[in-house]
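Per-record layout

source: Pseudomonas chlororaphis subsp. aureofaciens
name: Alpha/beta hydrolase
length: 161
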Amino acid sequence: MRDVHKRSPQRVDRRISLDQALDRLKQCYGNQDFELIGHSGGAALALLLAARRDDIAQVQTLAGNLNPRLWVNALGLSPLHGSLEPLDQAPKLALVTQRHLLGQADRSVPASLYPTYRQALGTKAVCVQSVSLPGVTHDQGWLEAWQYWRDQPLSCASPGN
């Protein structure tokens, strides 16, 4: 999981490759926009892509590592030198519709890290929703949760959500 955040040439190329893949899908199938879905470190990639593109309708994350710097500190891990940090793009991410599914029993990416991410987006974030899922761990409980939440419209009545 930690490899996803390292900025080696291959890692940066992966992000660019994902960017190019979305362009290709748009070209081949006529997509106007995309919904990006990411689990764990894939959530950070989805957010990094969303921050650099103007055709992302929304991002949904499951057990998402939304703030790798904070995650490393909170878990007492060695620093991820040169890692790509989604919150470095907080003003852009504040304009992206988002839903973050948080496993309350997740010890790998604790749900307790989410409020810092949300606060960093600020009060002008257009639509950011979090869903707390009791008993869901980093790798268990997601099938049922996703089957329910994947097609639910985001409820963004309150910007502080």
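summary: The longest helix spans residues 9-29. The longest strand covers residues 56-62.
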